[in-house]
Amino acid sequence: MANTKSSKKRIKTNKRNRIQNNSYKSLIKSHEKKHLSLIKASSEQTSKGDEDTSNSQALLRASFSSVVSQIDKAVKKNIIHKNTAIRKKTNLFKKTFPTVN
Hints:
Methane Monooxygenase Hydroxylase, Chain G, domain 1; single chain; plastid; 3 helices; mainly alpha; Ribosomal_bS20_sf; small ribosomal subunit rRNA binding; RNA-binding
């Protein structure tokens, strides 16, 4: 248990920051899941041979850029580590654009 006044304040601050960081991490995870579901839907559309592939590709690009933006903001705020962000973005890129090497 905290003894000094400053350590009690730090406990409060750490609790507040932990809650904010966890909510931001959760936001990133939900954006990733939405993007992966879009990828799955897009691949099913192309396998069926639908004509609306350009619209789905534009939607995928927009979704990808929003996920990357959220990840970059988390790195900037020191919520996730830089290497973790690079790994997440690389894996998403590979799943989104499988033909690009």
